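User: tokens in, sequence out, please.
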């Protein structure tokens, strides 16, 4: 079993000028998603092994 996407990523937005305060942080990837998919796939494998 695999999890993948054929969706093309969006290009980054150009930097915007900062009028006050510090510059806005740019978020990276959603770090919890790989673990979430890993647990989901592990659950599917466990179910398949228990049904055999």
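Assistant: Sequence out:
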């Amino acid at each position: 079993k695999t999890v993948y996407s054929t969706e093309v990523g969006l290009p980054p937005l150009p930097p915007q000028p900062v009028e006050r305060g510090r510059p806005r942080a740019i978020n990276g990837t959603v770090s919890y998603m790989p673990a979430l998919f890993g647990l989901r796939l592990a659950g599917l494998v466990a179910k398949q092994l228990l049904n055999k």
